[in-house]
Amino acid sequence: MRPILAFNWKMNPQTEEEAARLAAASDETGVIVFPPFPLIHVVRNQLTKAMLGAQDVSAADGGAHTGEVSPEMLKALNVSSVIVGHSERRKLGEDDALVASKALQAARQGISPLLCVGESEAERSDGLEVEVVTRQLKTVFDLLGREGLGSRLMVAYEPIWAIGTGENDAPEDANRVAEIILKVAEGFNLFPRVLYGGSVTSATAGRYIGKHSTLSGFLVGGASLKPEEVRNMITEFLL
Questions:
Q1: Which pLDDT value is given to residue 166?
Q2: Would residue 65 show up in a list of annotated catalytic residues for this protein?
Q3: pTM greater than 0.90 (yes/no)
Q4: Which of 109, 132, 143, 169 is the most buried (most CB within 10 A)?
Q5: What residues does each domain of the chain span?
């Protein structure tokens, strides 16, 4: 099965011109591009093969929620996937229940939730990564499973200590956690594809997907803002 390359631009780039160039470089089947909200229109107009994603979604389906973006709005923009539970959102106070509500609202509109899970450096040092990841999974899996909306779910395992730091989890450890994610999912009759994230580059990505890998692709941050890196990853995994 062809890998998934999910490119999370975060709060970048700063101009529409840069966004258009980067989107053009990223346009390949198997890619999902997650631009900031103000640049979604620009990116949508550049993509002919890649899918369009969004970096967040409201847990409400409408109403008086200043600053929020509803899943119905995203659907109207042809957004096919949305990131929920990213550690940078959890740091702002989003808990597992809110993450699950966002995933449910997206799934109800036919938008695939990309659920991010992962442990902090302290939690890894204490050997708590499995406990933390399992807790983050179960609330979302239970809610989607009960409504029969888990068929399009993806999960990204992103150790928090590896995001934007240049550090990487060992491939065997990342695949070990991916196996646990799939095992937990089976208990809810869900079968998500599992991605790895955390300072992934074209130089390091190849170590994670091999003959016996459980991983199905990557959630890429900083490297997704560099056209040469983007093209190298597309060439290696998708062409």
A1: 75
A2: no
A3: yes
A4: 169
A5: 4-9+32-237
